[in-house]
Amino acid sequence: MSSDIKRIIVLGGGTAGWITAGILAKKHASNTVHQGIQVSLIESPDIAVVGVGEGTWPTMRKTLAQLGISETHFMRQCGATFKQASKFVDWIHAQNDVYYHPFTEPQGFNKVDPAPYWQSMVEPGCSFSEAVSFQQFLCENNLAPKTIANKEYEVVANYGYHLDASKFINLLREHCVSQLGVQHISDTVEQVIQGDNGDVKSLVTVSNGLQKADLFVDCSGMRSLLLGETLDVAFKPCDHVFLADTALATQVPYAHANDPIACHTVSTAQTAGWIWDIGLQDRRGVGYVYSSQHSSEDEARNTLAQHIGCGSLENVRKISFKPGHREVFWKNNCIAVGLSAGFLEPLEASALMLIETSANYLADQLPANTAVMPIVAKRFNNMLLKKWRGVIDFLKLHYALSERPEPFWQEHRQAQSIPDSLKELLALWRYTSPNEYDFTDNIEAFSAASYQYILYGAGFNSDFTLMKHLYNQQQHANKQLLMTQKRIEQLKFTLPKHRELIDKVNSLGFSTI
Amino acid sequence: MSNYVLLDPAKHQDIKIKAHSDFAFSKHQHQVSLVVHEFGAAASSFPVVYMKEPQQGQFRAVALLSFIAGENHFYSDNDWQAVHLPSAFLRTPFELGPDPNQEKTLTLYINDQSDYVNDSEGEALYLDGEPSQFLQQVQSKMAEYYQQEQLTYQFTQQLLKNKLLKEIELLIEFVDGKKTGIKGIYTIDEEVLRQLDDATILQLNRDNYLLPIHAISSSLIQVNRLIKQHNYCSENKILGVQMRVISEE
């Protein structure tokens, strides 16, 4: 016997919980004509929120707009800034080497592949991203991706955000409860009650009794209370692929209130890991992701302090993690979103993206009743496993291309640590560039353009000479590079400094039209 | 050239201002700002639209004088060709700017590189160290202009509050095959205007806002006049202009 989906309970009030509850409620809550679905979120008042990820993808613009949150309000409430790229420092030789992964794809990428041509057209020393995209210039000059005269969520150059995770949760909670009709229950779950077929029937809470629902979203964090503990879905570690298992995170104030704000995440490679550096409105978020096998905590603290340029560190949060993900993400009537689904080091800010993807899929494909649920679950799992595979390959690519000599880096390059799917891609790319045939799925996490930015940014050389007859678009490619230069000349006069725009967002705000 | 400086009796004691003649200074100006009081008259000559000024992103009412930046198709054959003369032109070479001696107060600035400014011809600004009658007239006109700008601001706020502005894009096709799109132009959303509730319409009428609203709407046909003027002045003629409403994604 099948039953209709009338109530969904989201367990956990972190970023994953509130984003999922918000997207579900926005799409499925009752309206004036039809009875919809009740979305409730239960969060324990005693459990601290991890607040993963201070960096987002450009997808976050659409997510926020879809939830009905004004961009101006979001930026003011979350101390948020614009993010246009990731910048990788010292990842290749540890000799001040730099490459960028900008959010804007190469100029004319859908018309002509720049990879076979760009090198013959630039000065020696000019990097791939510098040649094919104007966005590196914007980042290097602290220029914002738009002006105050642009509308909310409108772009001149593609962007996501840097944000204060705990402020973001407050904003989402307030919006979900007051605007989207999400029922908020602050209570501790004592027991999970299952039916004969294993479906979760209800949650027993301390002060709000039995909470029944037809569908449960597990956003309980690394504990994975419903999917992991109750439904016994195994965790698939990938610590053979990624060696880092610890993060030290801290906050650094700006020396002067008017210091420039970086418009990109800076990721600087270290002996046993890498340091992220994210510029918010009133502080920076800095942290060291490292392998406890290759560095003691004291050494790691020193590395971080040295990077920041201070003698000692206060208020450092230590987070231990195991990279990997659940074998499936949807079992019976329970879906894991966020840390309960898995965790990877935040090298390309994929955590929030995976949350957005899962929540959107769930809201768009929500089964009408339990009878069709297994079909949707199967498709959801297929989709998400591909996403995770894509993220793992893409993150690993950064390590695979490094030539750093330290043991941490050498072990990262050992053949047995590289997934077969990535090995195959790397073999192909010896003679051709990353292209759409490598990523045929439209749900692929990273595009061919992103792979090119990493691959050629890190100095990889594809040998295009064997198929020389294919590459007769030199002139066309030339034109794209010239257009990039022209765009830079134009944008450097029209775009404001990043901090200047942030100040204007706070004093004036973006208009909605 | 423009270089607006604070009007200073010590510095500007001996300069004179020539009388307005042909408005040649507007030759390279493709738009000019308007106050709400002249929307009706301006609509007789140009498209009256809203655009955002780039520094603050604030909406500003302007008359479009050309589709091409740096060109003014209403200045040709050494003369001003339109029926209406925008009040902003009459203010030349004066402007209002912040008073450095008094916070939140505006005072007179002068463009000392304007062709109107010289020391032999026209009206003196000062006589025996005292403001001349001419300068006093300028001051009172600028005070009046300030009032009009305030009212224009209030009018604009009402448009925004009632969601009466919508963005349109002008897609221009030239004879030589080139196509270009001009974004960032706002006009009245007539559908929203039609749906306003009775009380709001009544209030807009009492505030005397309905006339300028209709002036903006009806002035869009002047895009055709811009095409004519363009084709009269330019080599690369315009085949046609399409108007497209930019809808929200």
Any key phrases for this structure?
heterodimer; A: alpha+beta; FAD/NAD(P)-binding domain; seven-stranded mixed sheet; six-stranded mixed sheet; 15 helices; 34% helix; globular; B: 249 residues; alpha+beta; three-stranded antiparallel sheet; 32% helix
Give a nutshell description of this structure.
With 513 residues, chain A is α+β, with helices and mostly antiparallel strands.
What does this structure look like?
The complex is a heterodimer of chains A (513) and B (249). In chain A, the strands form five sheets. A seven-stranded mixed beta sheet of chain A has the order 5-4-14-15-16-13-17. Helix content of chain A is 34%, strand content 19%. The model of chain A has no long low-confidence stretch (mean pLDDT 93). Chain A has a domain at 7-79 and 162-239 and 323-374: FAD/NAD(P)-binding domain (3-Layer(bba) Sandwich), CATH 3.50.50. The termini of chain A are far apart. Chain A has 513 residues and is α+β, with helices and mostly antiparallel strands. Chain A is built from 15 helices and 21 strands. Chain B is 32% helix and 28% strand. Chain B has a three-stranded antiparallel beta sheet with strand order 1-9-8. In chain B, strands 10-2-11 form a three-stranded antiparallel beta sheet, with no helix packed on it. A three-stranded antiparallel beta sheet of chain B has the order 3-5-4. Chains A and B meet through loops of A and strand 14 of B.
